[in-house]
Amino acid sequence: MLPPSRQQVLRLYKHLIRYGNQLQLTDKSYFLGRVRREFRENSKETESHKIEFNFKRGETLLRKGRIL
27: which residues sit within 8 A by CB, 6+ positions away? Predict the structure, then answer.
């Protein structure tokens, strides 16, 4: 399977930031910082299976509404 495109990754990032701004029972600053840090650390990743794994991890978080 092909890794997600840059546009898909950026869309996921935007959705995760919006989701984090709506949190009420979790520390928003921790969640938003973690999202930003994860994206920054993985921005140079070139292995497609790792990119795909992280992308699916983010999608699952949005879909289920839980922090992994």
Answer: none
CB 55 within 8 A of CB 12: yes
Q: Where are the domains of the chain?
A: 6-64
| Tens-digit pLDDT string for the chain (68 aa) | 788 999 999 999 999 999 999 988 878 999 999 999 999 999 999 999 999 999 999 999 999 876 55
Instruction: Note the pTM of the prediction, 2 decimals.
Output: 0.86
Nearby residues of 51 by Cβ (< 8 Å), 6 or more positions away: 3, 4, 9, 42, 45
